[in-house]
Amino acid sequence: MSDQDAVALNSEVKPKSMIRAKLWSDEIENLYRFQTAGYRDEVEYKHVKQVDLVERWPESGFVKKLQRKDNTFYYYNKLRECDDKEVHKVKIYAY
Length: 95
Known about the structure:
This protein is α+β, with helices and mostly antiparallel strands. The chain has 3 helices and 4 strands; from the N terminus they run αβααβββ. InterPro entries: Meiosis-expressed_gene_1.
């Protein structure tokens, strides 16, 4: 069981700290997608939506589709969507 799985099992999922992204990466791209859909990260999404897997693009590994808390869906492209001017808005949580 990974650390993320252990955190996901805890009903009170609370991050210990948060920093802001400075440079774009694949990880930052996926966090951007979770945060535009209204979640902190994959851990919170899996906990709230009670899902084991997040649908991803096989080519890039980026998140493909997320369900918001109001049950509408966000669909994302295969390629990068987080522009350089948006990177500083992405929050990276530590548990």
